[in-house]
Design goal:
Blueprint (H helix, E strand, L loop, with lengths): L1 H18 L2 H5 L4 E2 L2 E2 L6 E4 L4 E3 L7 E7 L6 H15 L7 E7 L7 H8 L7 E4 L2 H10 L4 E5 L7 E5 L3 E4 L5 E5 L5 H9 L4
Parallel strand pairs: 5-6, 6-7
Antiparallel strand pairs: 1-2, 3-4, 3-7, 5-10, 8-9, 10-11
Helix pairs in contact: 3-6
Bound molecules: nickel (II) ion.
The site of nickel (II) ion has 5 residues, from helix 3.
């Protein structure tokens, strides 16, 4: 648990440092005026090519996960966990929309995202956009990502990124977050504590 908290904190700190926003970190991590600092507006393109923003998901809970389709292990594991968890939610799954936002818009085109999300869950929404749009969304969710050299990859690069699954409420406000290590049973249980 400590590792989880530490990893989350490090991710959040890195994101804040990148943003040059240490003042907010000092003034109180997590909350600002009673509202969590994680989350916020975004405008992106979904895996069907439609332009969407956070308001398109209002009224439903969101499971938000950032990653990329060429990711060899973390992302497939995270998305598989999300898919299994959605199955466990049964009828309540209709109140939850799982969202996968790419941190590799260069390779993750609409077509690529469309083919990829279908592997994990029929409700999974894939979002891509321009690098600027993706950067804005990642900042809002305090997600760190960075393109790194990787000779083992066909294109010569990989993308380091924070691997946190966020649960956001019907208004888009942060509720809690999950890590890959947990079981879908535990994750579903925790989601059902909020989704009624
Ligand atoms: Ni990944």
């Amino acid at each position: 648990m400590l590792i989880v908290v530490a990893a989350f904190a490090i991710g959040a700190i890195l994101a804040l440092v990148l943003r040059g926003d240490l003042g907010r970190l000092v003034s109180g991590f997590g909350q600002s005026g009673g509202r969590a600092l994680v989350g916020g507006p975004f405008t992106l393109t979904d895996h069907t090519g439609k332009r969407v923003s956070e308001t398109d998901f209002a009224g439903r809970y969101m499971l938000v996960y950032f990653g990329f389709t060429y990711c060899p292990d973390a992302c497939p594991a995270g998305l598989q966990l999300i898919g299994e968890t959605m199955e466990r939610l049964g009828a309540k799954a209709r109140q939850v929309v799982p969202i996968f936002i790419t941190v590799d818009p260069e390779r993750d085109t609409v077509e690529q995202m469309s083919a990829y999300v279908a592997n994990f869950h029929p409700q999974l929404v894939g979002l891509t956009g321009t690098l600027e749009e993706i950067t804005d969304a990642a900042r809002a969710y305090r997600v760190y990502f960075a393109k790194v050299e990787d000779d083992s990859s066909g294109d010569g690069y990989s993308v380091d990124h924070t691997s946190i699954i966020y649960l956001m409420d019907r208004t888009g406000a942060y509720v809690t977050h999950f890590r890959h290590g947990m079981t879908s049973e535990e994750m579903a249980k925790r989601i059902l504590q909020h989704v009624s």
